[in-house]
Amino acid sequence: MISKQETEKIAKLARLGLSEKEIEKFQKELSSILGYIEKLGDLDVSLIEPTFHPFESVNVTRKDSEKKKDFSKKLVDLAPEEKEGCIKVKSVF
Amino acid sequence: MHQGKVGFLIFMELTNLGIKEINKGLKEKKFSAVSLCKAYFKKIKEKDKDVSAFLSLNEKSALDQAKEVDENVSQGGEIDILAGVPCAIKDNILVEGLKCTAGSKILENYVAPYTATVVERLRNKGAVILGKTNLDEFAMGSSTENSAFFPTKNPNALTRVPGGSSGGSAAAVAGDMAVYSLGSDTGGSIRLPASFCGVVGLKPTYGAVSRFGLIAFASSLDQIGPFARSVEDCEAVFNAIRGKDEMDSTSVDADKKNEKKNVKDVVVGVPKEYFVQGIDKEVEKIILGAIKKYEDAGAKIEEITLPYSEYALPAYYIINPSEASANLARYDGIKYGLSDAESSELLDVYLKTRGKGFGPEVRRRIMLGTYALSSGYYEAYYLKAQKARTLIKKDFEKAFEKVDAIFTPVSPFLPFKIGEKIEDPLSMYLVDIYTVSINLAGLPALSLPVGKVKNLPVGLQIVGKPFEESRIFEIAKVLE
């Protein structure tokens, strides 16, 4: 069972604004799912290499050349706030 | 004159034609691509108010696309096998200029700025795109009930779920509202709805199909694949979308031509771990019947063992949420999508936007993933799961030394009632117990309808070796 404080901490790390009620609900649900996942505990994997990707793949690179397509405007237009062709961000300080 | 007259006479039947028949009909000018397209929109308007497979329709552009094909035919041009064939696209695959919601409030008003490679490839062949189909939010779910907009219903039984997460794509094909459709499969999201709706659905080998333009969920598991009413149609679509794409570094050209095998030379493995307690007896009976049918056709059936099977679902429910929590960090209320930007504090914007924009299952997975990746738990959960993944993958490699394909049920359950499992996340996860291991191992697998319990379809899962989709199709055609 994970604690309420732990649940609150995860929500904050995940940048999810949750209500008190939701925290309680997630505390219960996460505990039940983690309980099921505990099954992995009885598996000895000390000598096993992890598989992060199903197949080995090679890195693909391309020439560092300028692209003329005006794609950036399209992307900036999708932002909630823009200013002078840039995405506007909240002040950090 | 010609097409108007004939088109009207066979209006009702147009929506039953397969890809080859459509191609023949168009070439011989028995009907036009426009009349075919209209017949599909008519069908959608009649039927989709009950099924709710589509999130949005693309009527005007679809008719323009069909018109182009007709012009091509009338000028005597060659047309591709998929030209003029109406299809539907899961709403987590981008089509420039169309909304792409991923079934989420956070992308409710997001209009795709570019087109996914798979759609580009279909369009280059003259495909007609009818609309975008419903899904569990960000493809997270097994019933399509997690869509932030509305649930899709199973065309075979409207009180039941179509499976998920590509429930809209499967229901569109099952309800004759599209000839074929595209879905995505991260842990069973093509095969489960194909099984529940009674259509053919393929999850290709990881890397066989480009993921460029697919909204990322769990990147080491996601694959795009087709739904169709027949194996032949499914194969035609797969061949059109497969292959390397410079925009997806994990895609490969594995145009492996498997030499044809007579059914008498095919060896099929049946893993004993997939027929244990928990499987619905009626489902088991139908699956065993299909296996017997293939044996009677001359194939050799062998019992095999995949000893680490029981660890697949727990490992999956660590790896999947971990990758999801990282991928979904991009929805921050700053770059695109929903934004609750009233506050002047950056942290507030994040918390409010994400708290409001994501539904319960998406939040659950983000929470789980964040927990599994957080300091102190990484080794116990994430790393351990990736090591278990190695063992699961090796199980299959070993089995495939002796067999050409593996047969299992797609799901232990029949399509369940809407609302039956939605309040209990863990019971919903268990629906995918036979499909997730395939994604962990990166293998290709197809769901083939092999029977019904009353009116509820049951799918057989045919698993192949990496990049041996053609072998899977060959086997499925014998059983179809």
Would you give an account of this structure?
- The complex is a heterodimer of chains A (93) and B (480).
- Chain A is mainly alpha-helical.
- Chain A has a domain at 4-42: Histone, subunit A (Orthogonal Bundle).
- Chain A is 37% helix and 4% strand.
- Chain A is built from 3 helices and 2 strands; from the N terminus they run H-H-H-E-E.
- Chain A has helices at 4-13, 20-37, 72-77; strands at 82-83, 86-87.
- Chain A has a two-stranded antiparallel ribbon.
- In chain A, helix 1 crosses helix 2 (20-37).
- The radius of gyration of chain A is 23 Å and the shape is flat.
- With 480 residues, chain B is α/β, with parallel strands linked by helices.
- Chain B has a domain at 313-380.
- Chain B has helices at residues 2-9, 11-14, 19-27, 33-51, 59-74, 117-124, 167-174, 191-197, 231-241, 281-296, 312-327, 346-357, 360-373, 379-399, 425-429, 436-441, 469-479, and strands at residues 54-57, 86-90, 128-133, 180-185, 200-203, 223-228, 267-271, 300-304, 405-409, 445-453, 456-464.
- Chain B has an 11-stranded mixed β-sheet, with helices on both faces.
- In chain B, helix 6 links the parallel strand 2 (86-90) and strand 3 (128-133).
- The chains are: A mainly alpha (93), B alpha/beta (480).
- At the A-B interface, helix 1 and helix 2 of A face helix 11, helix 12, helix 13, helix 14 and helix 15 of B.
